[in-house]
Structures are given as C-alpha cells and as structure tokens.
Amino acid sequence: MLLQAWAWQKQRVAALCTAATADRRDTVFLLQHPPVYTLGAGSSEAHVKFDLQQPPHPLYRTERGGEVTYHGPGQLVMYPILDLTRHQQDLHWYLRGLEEVVLRALANTSGLQGQRIEGLTGVWVDGHKLAAIGVRARKWVTYHGLALNVATALGPFSHITPCGIADRPVGSVKTALARAAAAAAAVADTKADGSSNSSSIHGTQQQQQQQQQQQQQQEEDLYAVSSDPLIVEYRYALLEALEEVFGLHLQPASQQQMQQLLNSGSSSSSSSSSSGVDSVPSRTGAVAIA
What we know:
This protein has helices at 5-18, 91-110, 173-193, 198-220, 229-246, 255-274, and strands spanning 3-4, 27-32, 36-39, 59-61, 69-71, 75-81, 123-125, 128-138, 141-149, 251-252, 281-289. By secondary structure, the chain is α+β, with helices and mostly antiparallel strands. Pfam families: LplA-B_cat.
C-alpha cells in the first residue's frame, strides 16, 4: 500500500494550527519513498536534465524550500511536524537543528564525521552530500524535512542537478563506508610493505570495480536496497537524534491514530490533486507522536 505522505503532513499541520495549545503535539513521519523526483516551491526546471513530459520517474512540485531532488528506496525521509512556538521561532535555527540530527546519527551509528558547508544547507561526508533538507512552516508549524541517503542507488541523481549544486557529488552512508574501508585497506597495505606496491593498487581497483558492479545491480532493482540492514539502524538513530536535538519524547502512533491518518490522507490527496499540487506517495513508514 502506498502511503500519501504529503497529504498526511498537510492534515497534521492543519490540525496543529487549529488545535488548542495543550493539544499541539509534535509528530514525526519516517519513511521511504518509491522512486520519485520532487521540486521545491521555487525550484528552477533548469536543474532537471530529462524531458519533463517523459520523466524516468514521477515528478512532483511541492511547497518545500530548495531545488530538485530525488527520493527512493534506501533513503530515509523524515518529516517532523513541529510546533516551533514550543521550541524556537526561527527557521534558520530549525534547519541547523535538522543538520545536527543527521550529524549525530552518522557519528553514533557508523562513526562517520559529517560536515556542514557554509552558505549551504545539508550534510556532507568527504565532499559527498548525504543529506538534503527542505522545509516549510505554517503558523510556525513545520513540515517537509530531511532525506538521508543510507543505501540509496545513486544513479537517478544523474538525471538532475541535486539541490541545484553542480560541483558537489551526492553520496550515501553505504558508499561513504565503502570508501573508508578501501582507504583503510590501502593504508594497511602500505604500512605492511613499507611502500605502496602494485598489488595494493590493484586491490583498490578491484574494490572500486566491485562497488560499481554493486551500484549497477542496485539500479536495476531500485527496491532491493529498501531492506538493507543499515536502514533499520538509521531509522532508530535518526529518531533518537531528533529527540536529543529538539528535546522530544516520541511514542509510536497507535493503530487508531494511524487509521485516522490513513483516512484523512486519502481524502486530502484527492483535494490536493484538484488544487494542482500532487501528493507524493511513500513506502514503508513509521509515525511517532510527542
């Protein structure tokens, strides 16, 4: 069953905006999407390299900030619906907070040291962008959020200029770990031999070829990566980091709450299509409420 994540967010934001102060509980959606491209409210179509009439995957325009990006299996997408009047009424503070969530998840789970880049929004590891962030707020209630490439097949990113940044490649947790392992192996070989020899270089080349073959296989079946063990690890890591950074105490949504969201999502998605904004389908989701 495809979950209408965009409609869920709209419904929850509307509920929080009209609720009494005591009932304005923060909500978090954490999920994977099927292959899809999304544009922000002011995104330039110049960053799209394919024919808009024949996209390789569905293309939607949303109200979030930022430029075009790709969502797909192996990528964890987190949509925090937070009432910033209970936190800090500052979207720049909120964006830096989402970056901090990713930085902590990377460090705590894989020992990866993520970086921020001044003037840009997101998180990079060794020059590769692993997390994209685009948000919007209504009456200080946030929606949209962040996308972390965990085991994502990166091929679909080649059809766009991700986030409008042409000179910085996209990566994933899995490729970052593979690069780190290859570098460590090369250093170990060098120390053992006293110099970099042809066998160590050949071994590194073989590893790179294997990585390329694995990437090609993933692109042939984009959904294969959705069950990668790293996904489970990072699902928990992102939720824990979100709690730490924003001082939340999240609880899984009850079956009744989930059913209410499903019902409201179906009706909301119908109305959104008539208004010219398509809903974005999702796959394998989790909901937590503070």
